[in-house]
Design brief:
Blueprint (H helix, E strand, L loop, with lengths): L3 E9 L2 H4 L8 H17 L2 E7 L5 E10 L2 E9 L5 E7 L5 H26 L3 E9 L3 E9 L1
Antiparallel strand pairs: 1-5, 2-3, 3-4, 4-5, 6-7
Amino acid sequence: MSHMSSYKTDIKLVNALEAGRPVEEDPGWDILNEAVFAVAEEMNLDVSHTIHDYYGRAILCDWALTSPDIPRGLGVNVDRKTGEVTFISDNYGGYERIVGEIKDRIIQNYSALCVTKALAALNYSVEIDEVKHPIEGKKVLVRGVL
């Protein structure tokens, strides 16, 4: 049985769209790409453009993360009209926990990268500290010193 799920985020890539350009030209696109690849490296995930449902049907995504722990994958898509970022996956079979962890880490990395880049653009010296906690997961502290 297939349980395809879609999860909306608060992330929206609208700068390029408002200027009449494709969403791929939005500065947030590169930041999201960096966040996805950082999570893939942290969690030993493969990055591609295809996830699968329970029946093995391929679903194209902007980014797809897979591993032996999540063989069907978690997809990340950006709506080309609204810039909204969504996650999709087939959680049938008990994959909700790992999918949730990957989603949370992508959002956390995206947020930390946005703050870091904004502070750097304002000529702050930026320091990042990551603390891994066994229960609460990873915490990221971004410090900007002028």
